[in-house]
Amino acid sequence: MQNSNQKHNKFYVTTPIYYVTARPHLGSLYSTLLADVAARYHKVAGQEVFFLTGTDEHGQKVAQAAEKAGMKPKEFTDSFIDDYTSVWNTYNIAYDYFIRTTDQQHIAGVQTWLQRLIAQGDIYKGSYKGWYCTPCESFVTEKDSQETEVGKALTCPDCSRLTGEVFEECYFFKLSAYQDRLLAFYEENPNFITPKERMAEIVNFVKGGLKDLSISRTTVSWGIPFPDDNLHVTYVWADALNNYITAIGYGDDSRAQELAKWWPADLQIMGKDIVRFHAIYWPAFLMASGLAMPKKLLVHGWIKVGDQKMSKSLGNAIDPMQLAQDYGVDEMRYYLTRKMAITQDSEFKFEDISQSINAELANAFGNLLNRMATLVVKNEATHLNPPAQWSHSSLELQKQCQIICDDVWSLVDQGMLYRAVARIWDYINLVNAYFHEHEPWKVIKHDREKFLEIMSATVHSLQIIGILLWPVMPAKMELMLNSLGCPFDTSINYKESMKTMSWKNSFIIQQIATLFAKSEIKKEDIEEVTQAAQPQVKPAQQAVIKTPEVTQASVTPAAKPVENGTENIGIEDFIKLDLRIGTIIDCEIVTGSDKLLKSQVDFGPLGMRQVLSGIRKHYSPEEMKGKQGLFVVNLKPRKMMGFDSHGMMLFALDELSGLKIVGLVEQVAPGTKVG
């Protein structure tokens, strides 16, 4: 066991674990980024950190998606793991462990948990009749739904889809037995959930009465088998929530010290759509297990595109990899951390990214660094030492620096990361005001000592800013701090050192290239470039075969010219085309376009490729998922609405019914060559 001082000096942060039915989108990144920023702040504060993220791979929704894709569930979930780790690595997400609910140690831990609760009477066998939402993997009662008509399918309160009625034998967790204990816990811990509005919602829900929770299914086979009853698989939330303790050793006696060291979690981050599971089911599970409650749930709002929540199922998800390519990794980390308010829903806008980069990162921050470095290099003052005595204005700047540092750490402890970054920007503005007021480019002409004091105060300030912003923009801040001659050191407890801060450091300045380049990429620019490149061609026509069949007769050298005047080609031209069968694994709407769909296509030995098609008026993303089609795979990649398209899907154009997929009577292996 750890002593109290060791226990106090740890920080355990978790993200929700993500359904692996598609690649991660911007909403997935947002939750994970918040956890990464929080973890980094606590590292800066000298704490030992454990950062957990991962994937939720069981349940009916995953099984159905796998079946639609023509794959076994495990094979299907395996296919997305590289996508998640690739995005996390691109964005410098420094997680310590990536858990999968298909991991054997997790499965064993969940089964141990079930056995213990069955033995103590908290789980019993019964039968369930009611309404179930497959996409949300949740049971819905009349209290939850706005639908009141007797016998009519209830609407899920989270996703607004109609639920399905189920009747089956199942195991129940005695959730109702923990109602009073939950209410007492909420009252004793009013800051358990941030923001407080979410706490009020949970308290009101629990006061309305809790029913026992069905935690097994017999109509689903893809899940963790119930111990001693293989007809049942574990309900996905009873499976998934336990990842937070199985990852650190629950159920494994040899890891008891590890569990004791890290649990309880200090911060658990999630979107508001899953707060009920984490704020009611999860604490009740822990109470039944004799484990401590998490210290804080940080519940953020949705990222919205227009008036809709961003989600894969709604087809408005945005690809974080493309954003990193277009705007930069640290720039996107900054935008998401500062501009997406945790306490409410936030609208995603491309123009806001450019505004943030140009006005805040490039002008307010980067320009300050560049002007300082230019002046010290020009005036041969790259070796900066603190003055023997600071002037009143410099001491006032130092005083404000101390106040803002204290505010930043307080806001970080509250989970208000976006406000913490805004407070850092208050200080950047103060330093800019100090710099402009003292006009060092003029002072150097008549008072070199005063010039050196202004430069030293500015560089001391930039050092503090770099340390405070390192959790948000680690790569950029390390580059900047290196240029100041004070490399970032993760072994230093910067939070503690800032409490007794005095400006007495020496610096060796090196001028570097522009820290933040101004953004030239805007959504409207992408649209103009795309339209200008293809002014005569509609997207839907770029991937169309205008004859209902493609036959060898239509491409033989002896064929006569077709009646519409199209020029015939020789066989030598046709064989240049590499035609392959591809299976569409995922498909989504391209935000900002009323024509384009973006598909992730499996070409077997050729791997996964992204293909854009102008077919939105003819097919929905849901209709395309799982379909096999004919693709040209050796076209040069081209950019459409800011996304690269690596191939062309072929369609037949029926004058009466529109576009039709050129498909197969029977499925074949992805990547099969056609010709």
TrEMBL record:
Main location: cytoplasm
Keyword field contains Secreted: no
Pfam family of the protein (one): tRNA-synt_1g
Quaternary assembly: Homodimer.
Cofactor: Zn(2+)
Chain residues that bind Zn(2+): 133, 136, 156, 159
PANTHER family: METHIONINE--TRNA LIGASE, MITOCHONDRIAL, METHIONYL-TRNA SYNTHETASE
Name of the coding gene: metG
Protein name: Methionine--tRNA ligase
Residues spanned by motif 'HIGH' region: 18-28
Compartment annotation: Cytoplasm
Keyword line: Aminoacyl-tRNA synthetase, ATP-binding, Cytoplasm, Ligase, Metal-binding, Nucleotide-binding, Protein biosynthesis, RNA-binding, tRNA-binding, Zinc
The keyword tRNA-binding is annotated on this UniProt entry: yes
PROSITE patterns, per database record: TRBD
Coiled coil stretches, renumbered: none
InterPro entries, alphabetized: Met-tRNA-synth_bsu_C (IPR004495), Met-tRNA_synth (IPR014758), Met-tRNA_synth_2 (IPR023457), Methionyl/Leucyl_tRNA_Synth (IPR015413), MetRS_core (IPR033911), NA-bd_OB-fold (IPR012340), Rossmann-like_a/b/a_fold (IPR014729), tRNA-bd_dom (IPR002547)
Lineage: Bacteria, Candidatus Babelota, Candidatus Babeliae, Candidatus Babeliales, Candidatus Chromulinivoraceae
Motif ('KMSKS' region): 309-313
Native species: Candidatus Chromulinivorax destructor
Superkingdom per UniProt: Bacteria
Cited function: Is required not only for elongation of protein synthesis but also for the initiation of all mRNA translation through initiator tRNA(fMet) aminoacylation.
Catalyzed reactions per annotation: tRNA(Met) + L-methionine + ATP = L-methionyl-tRNA(Met) + AMP + diphosphate
Enzyme Commission number, as recorded: 6.1.1.10
GO molecular function, one term: methionine-tRNA ligase activity
Cellular component terms (Gene Ontology): cytoplasm
